[in-house]
Write a structure and sequence with these properties.
- There is one protein chain.
- This protein is 33% helix and 15% strand.
- The strands form two sheets. Strands 1, 2, 3, 4, 5, 8, 9, 10, 11 and 12 form a ten-stranded mixed β-sheet that branches. A two-stranded antiparallel ribbon has the order 6-7.
- By secondary structure, the chain is of the alpha+beta class.
- It is built from 15 helices and twelve strands.
Length: 476
């Protein structure tokens, strides 16, 4: 790669609430693209087991291939994808269906015919109709919420075996009639006489036929996430070149991981009437020259966020089997990892919409009694290159820590040699409701492969919210 991520901060316009003066911290992406696998960890660290709290383990997790919306999954429904993930999990783990106590799935844009997609997918996958299931939504951290809800049920002793997951189908989103049209149709349904119906129909206007699309903007700010990402990149002086370099890193590392068979959580899915899908189709390493030709996608003509350095609309589903440790061992499983401390955070959705990882990371480390140096594998959700790099700068700033987070010192930046080394949402894809489970499984699988002990998962979400969790490798 021709240049590096320089992390050099400039003076910002006084209108920005995040106009800061930051220290310089050079980080090179190019060195990571051809680096060998990280050296296996040799330092033995403490376990994060807590007295009087049940250990919660990840037995295994899978996902169907994440695909660009409008491709092979376009004629399906969300519960079809979720059912495929559940079926893949059953095949992978051979867990008896009747031992599963509860099923929780996350989703963001709900299909109106299957509002509780967890229940419909579970029935379709052959789970007992006696197994309860519910659906949660928390924007891009919906499956994170599904996991931690299951964690709570197990830790409190209410359940022993939980299946958590998430799904999103952006190929077919619900488009409604306008509110005026909906009201007229409902009133027509209630009308009892021909005269009443004719009176209602006489009020019809052509503009009633204008469709109402799902919101693409924050409800509270009326600003799209892309615009927020562009403003955030400007506020933290993240250049277009830095963003393109980071996106190229993500795609290159994802392609390498895919070619080497490291993305072992992916299970094949025979799409009805079509071929079997076996791998993610959004991994497309390009070149900086080609990426530089793209025009700004949101703030025109001077913005820096483009289609090349943003995550793309994605269809996909994921599922994880989590258990109380004693239950997993009794059933003969060798778990992959422990789920440990986690936090949720929330901040200003206008100026700090995408800074969830910056706020959540120091909190979860403090809660677990760890430091950044203790973490062997970082898995952060990549909504935009600019979002990731802005978070890096915030995390590396004492000024930001003191003025915005009420902390005395910065938490520090994750070293790139430990960060998203098998690709991320920019390249693998981002089905809103399914990404959280992918992040946790990536951390767990990397720890097993590389010999590390602790992984840190973090993500931002719409509404200015965020999540972070510590994953601990299960002893071999």
């Amino acid at each position: 790669m021709a240049s590096i991520l320089t992390y050099t901060f400039r003076n910002l316009p006084s209108t920005s609430k995040l106009a800061l003066g930051f220290s310089v911290r050079p980080l090179s992406c190019s060195s990571q693209l051809h680096a060998a696998a990280p050296v296996a960890q040799t330092k033995s660290k403490k376990t994060l087991a807590k007295a009087n709290i049940r250990n919660v383990v990840v037995v295994d997790g899978v996902r169907i291939p994440f695909l660009l919306s409008g491709t092979s999954y376009k004629d399906l429904m969300p519960h079809d994808l979720a059912r495929a993930a559940l079926s893949g999990l059953l095949h992978r783990t051979n867990v008896p269906k009747d031992v599963v106590d509860y099923i929780i799935f996350g989703t963001v844009i709900q299909e109106v015919k299957t509002s509780n997609v967890a229940r419909e997918a579970a029935l379709g996958a052959g789970f007992s109709d006696k197994t309860p299931a519910h659906t949660v939504t928390m924007a891009c951290i919906s499956s994170n919420q599904a996991m931690t809800t299951g964690f709570g049920l197990i830790a409190s002793g209410q359940s022993d075996v939980i299946v958590a997951g998430g799904v999103e189908l952006m190929s077919d989103i619900p488009i409604r009639h306008s509110r005026k049209m909906r009201k007229m149709l409902l009133d027509l349904n209630k009308a009892k006489t021909l005269g009443q119906r004719l009176a209602l129909i006489s009020k019809f206007r052509l503009n009633f036929l204008s469709p109402e699309l799902p919101a693409v903007a924050e409800f509270s700010t009326n600003e799209t996430m892309g615009h927020s990402a562009d403003r955030l990149a400007a506020a933290f002086s993240v250049s277009r070149l830095e963003q393109d370099e980071y996106a190229l890193r993500s795609h290159s590392l994802a392609k390498k991981a895919q070619d080497e068979g490291l993305l072992s959580d992916v299970v094949p899915f025979k799409v009805p009437g079509k071929d079997t899908v076996t791998k993610d189709n959004g991994i497309r390493p390009s070149s900086l020259d080609q990426m530089a030709k793209l025009k700004p996608a949101f703030v025109k003509p001077y913005g820096t966020v483009t289609a090349a350095n943003s995550s793309f609309l994605t269809d996909g589903a994921s599922a994880m089997l989590i258990m109380a440790e004693e239950k997993a061992l009794a059933l003969g499983y060798k778990p992959k990892a422990y789920l440990r401390d986690f936090v949720y955070v929330s901040q200003d959705p206008k100026d700090q919409l995408l800074l969830g990882p910056s706020y959540a990371t120091p909190k979860v480390l403090e809660k677990a009694g760890l430091t950044m140096n203790d973490i062997d594998a970082f898995e952060f959700h990549e909504a935009f290159s600019g979002q990731i790099l802005a978070n890096f700068k915030a995390m590396d700033s004492d000024w930001f820590a003191q003025n915005y987070m009420g902390r005395k010192t910065k938490v520090g930046v994750p070293p790139l040699e430990k960060f998203n080394t098998w690709g991320g949402s920019l390249s693998l894809g981002h089905p809103f409701g399914a990404t959280g489970c992918r992040l946790v499984m990536a951390a767990a699988n990397r720890l097993r492969k590389e010999g590390g002990q602790y992984g840190l998962v973090a993500a931002c979400a719409a509404g200015g919210q965020g999540h972070a969790m510590i994953v601990e490798a299960y002893p071999k």
